[in-house]
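fold-stage: in
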Amino acid sequence: MSSPFFFFVLALASFRLTRLFVYDAITSFIRKPFHEIVEETLPDGTTETFLVVKGKGLRKWIGELLSCYWCTGIWCAALLYAGDMIWPAVFEPLVFVLAIAGCAAFLETIVQKLLF
């Protein structure tokens, strides 16, 4: 780690990459083979949605990983850090783009909370 600044940038990039894999609709195609969304109507008429992990073995492990923000975050941080150490010409721009997107997500959340 070259500086506290890069540590902060890497943390923001890890945050954004993790959210991309675990929550964002644009990457739902990655989660689809491992997750099933089940809707259940409760006795009071409300509908509750559940995530069910599919399969066994490796498929189930990946499904569990992609359903856990903390678990996926560790692997995303490791990937970005190792990638930057091994192949900085490719990973450094990726880390900065993800960090900028992560920072923008924080700012958007703040603006939404202040305006609405």
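fold-stage: in (second)
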Amino acid sequence: MRSREFLGHHELMVMLAVLRLGRDAYGVPIAAEIAQRTGREMLQGSVYAILERLESKGLVTSRLGEATPQRGGRAKRYFALTAEGSRQVRETQRALEALWHGLTKTAGAKP
């Protein structure tokens, strides 16, 4: 990833969900994890589009699991962060913490 390119809000949420889920990270539980933790629904189609974009950037990798009869013989596609993906998440965390540092709870609130 180029140094001037930043993770988008949704990209970061998907990557954090992938980290939380570990080896069980595929579309359905990723969307569920985001909804549970944030209270915001994310469509599975959006999750997969983000995952494909992240994979093309080299931030996640994917592997196919076993085909199951419950899925009509289709295999689940599992995702994991790459070393670069982990680095970008940590860098984004540090940048956001630096921006938040020193702000009061009411900063920006209208009187």
